[in-house]
Design brief:
- By secondary structure, the chain is mostly beta strands.
- It has one domain: M1 Pyruvate Kinase, Domain 3.
- It contains three helices and eleven strands; from the N terminus they run βββββαβββααβββ.
- Strands 2-1-6-5-9-8-7-11 form an eight-stranded mixed sheet.
- A hairpin with a 3-residue loop joins β7 and β8.
Length: about 150
Amino acid sequence: MSHVVAVCTSEFTGTCKQARSEASLEQGFGLLGDAHADRHTHRQVSLLSMESISKMQEMGVGVAPGDFGENLTTAGIDLATLGIGTRIYIGDTIVLEITQIGKECHKPCAIYKKAGTCVMPTEGIFARVIRGGNVKPSDPISLSDK
C-alpha cells in the first residue's frame, strides 16, 4: 500500500528538513512551518520516494528522509513517472496536484558532492495544495489523473 513515510519541515531554505510526527498542509499555501510554503508559487510541497532515497543509500551515501529537502517522503509510488496535473490523495482529506517533476540544481548540494549524483533533480516532484489537512507518517496515498 502506498503511504507517507515521513513529514519534514525546515525553518530555512537550503537546509535539510527535520522529520515531524505530524504537520498541517494549508490549502493554496503548503506545509505550515516550512520555509518553502508560499501562496505565490506552484512548488508549495515537495515529494520524494523512499525508493529514490534507498538508491542513494545503496551507493553508500548516509541519507534519510528530509535530507534532500523534501516535505513528504512516500513509499509505494514511482513519483517521477506521474504526470503534471495528477492528483495525490493523502488520508481522508488532503489533495495535492503535481505541478513540476524534477528541478534544476543551480549549485551542487552536499549529497551531489559526496556521491557525484543526486536523485532530487530527476525523481523529486512538486505540488500545490488543493485541499489541506493534517498529514502524518503511515497516512495512505492514492492517485487520480486530473
